[in-house]
Design a protein that fits this description.
This protein is of the alpha+beta class. Helices cover 14% and strands 25% of the residues. The chain has one domain. The strands form two sheets. Strands 3, 4, 5, 6, 10, 11 and 12 form a seven-stranded antiparallel β-sheet that branches. A five-stranded antiparallel β-sheet has the order 1-2-9-8-7, with no helix packed on it. A hairpin with a 5-residue loop joins strand 5 and strand 6. It comes from Jiangella alkaliphila. This is DUF4331 domain-containing protein. It holds the Pfam family DUF4331.
Length: 455
């Protein structure tokens, strides 16, 4: 998955596990940028009586770099607290939840949003904002969309924020890909062949917990500018999300609960989709989650010679001969630019998202490129400059884009003499976007446990 279970240790701590990060110029409010960080992967909708929630002991953050140094120049931090209205019941709700303050809503979460610049102490933008409940079913949450709408809160300066459960917008044939990189559309060409078949979206009925914030572009760019020219370096921002925990966790016997102690340490991070998932080797994945983007020089070698690129010619004999030759002869400077520095001006006409020479895993968004009137889920490789790897929209087919890039489709950007294998442009995992909302927070209503069949 994009980052649902990407490292051994964080897979044991789902409440702090970032699953996907999105950053895009808002299509319905093009003077703003929407940032979405999803956590708590692969939620089964029927999860009572202890439904999913954010961690009160986790500090969630979305970082923005705008100074060309791969350092956080702007950070939005989110802290949650949980209240139990009736301590004498085991139930999440004791009747239909008609509003966010309904007495029947027994276990509620509230959060504070803080904005900081550099090392300066943060400004509280809003506090005690209520989250919606999980989508339990037609009796407990009979009008879930209205509950979710009520949980979209205005921020000072024209922003919006939402924190709560949504349907997972990511789509991937997880079972096929991790079964020795089987790509269902042409699995008959695999080393262990089977009949070709359509892909299966593993996450069709899964939910996540979403932190979404929409803010004016001028709140994110260098010097508070509103760049209009895509060639302006100030138009480009880098984005990543982190989750941090305190160093110690102590059980308070009198209170009957755990509490954190000590300073916060980072336990999870996410920039580009699939980076830690399939680029970083297993023995270093936990280390990567604790590292800062500015230190990603340590991982450049895995981008220059990615393991998946080596596997494709082996697993699909005779299908990727040019990729096999490329693997033997050259470092993948194209992938290094796409994933670690951004593309400089002149590589793709009318586009650049270069953030400086420091290699760092971040989503890179050129805020001067307006949303497409005819969006293509293949983003830049599909001719749509408003899509991945220019930031990332919810419907961008990042699995196909990255598989094709690794297979060699993007290498001609730096070597016009190279011709990719014909199969490289056809490679896909066979899934399609599930469809999402046209307005904030853009992800669909979460699946409810009553309607969704058990797996």
């Amino acid at each position: 998955m994009s980052s649902h279970r990407e490292a051994p240790e964080i897979s044991k701590d789902p409440v702090a596990d970032s699953t996907d990060l999105y950053a895009f110029v808002s299509p319905d409010r093009p003077d703003t940028v929407t940032l979405i960080a999803n956590y708590l992967p692969a939620q089964t909708p029927a999860a009572g009586p202890n439904f999913y929630e954010f961690g009160d002991d986790v500090r969630y953050e979305i970082h923005i770099s705008n100074g060309g140094r791969a350092e956080a120049d702007v950070t939005y931090a989110f802290r949650f607290r949980t209240e139990v209205a009736n301590e004498e019941t085991f139930l999440y709700n004791t009747g239909p939840i008609a509003s966010l303050d309904a007495p029947e809503f027994n276990r509620r979460q509230f959060y504070t949003v803080t904005r900081s610049e550099g090392d300066r102490r943060g400004d509280v933008l809003a506090e005690d904002l209520p989250c919606p409940p999980c989508n339990i079913g037609p009796r407990s949450t009979p009008d879930y969309p209205s509950l979710a709408d009520a949980a979209v809160h205005d921020l000072p300066g024209g922003g919006k924020v939402f924190a709560g459960q949504r349907a997972d917008g990511f789509f991937v044939d997880l079972g096929s890909i991790f079964d020795l990189a089987t790509l269902r559309p042409f699995q008959s060409a695999h080393l262990i062949p089977m009949a070709d078949a359509d892909g299966v979206n593993t996450l069709t009925h899964s939910n996540v917990h979403t932190i979404a914030i929409q803010v004016p572009i001028t709140d994110l760019t260098r010097g508070g500018k509103r760049p209009r020219n895509a060639e302006d370096a100030a138009a480009v921002i880098g984005v990543w999300t982190t989750a941090s925990r305190q160093r110690a966790r102590i059980f308070d016997k009198d209170e009957g609960s755990y509490r954190g102690a000590g300073s916060f340490v980072q336990v999870s991070r996410l920039g580009n989709p699939l980076f830690n998932e399939v680029i970083v080797p297993m023995a270093r994945k936990d280390e990567w989650n604790a590292a800062e983007p500015e230190d990603d020089e340590d991982y450049v070698s895995y981008v220059r010679r990615p393991e998946v690129a080596k596997l494709l010619p082996v697993l699909y004999p005779g299908v990727f001969p040019r990729l096999a030759e490329l693997n033997e002869s050259a470092d993948r400077a194209d992938l290094e630019a796409i994933l670690l520095t951004g593309l400089p001006e002149g590589v793709v006409p009318g586009f650049q998202n270069f953030t400086g020479a420091t290699p760092s895993d971040m989503l890179r968004l050129n805020t001067a490129i307006t949303p497409s009137a005819d969006p293509n889920p293949l983003g830049v490789v599909g001719g749509d400059l408003a899509g991945f790897p220019n930031g990332r929209r919810v419907f961008d087919d990042v699995v196909t884009i990255e598989l094709r890039a690794i297979a060699g489709v993007t290498y001609p950007l730096i070597d016009s003499e190279f011709t990719p294998d014909g199969a490289a442009a056809a490679i896909t995992d066979g899934t399609t976007p599930p469809g999402n909302e046209d307005s904030f927070p853009y992800l669909r209503t979460p699946h409810d446990g009553f309607a969704v069949p058990a797996a």
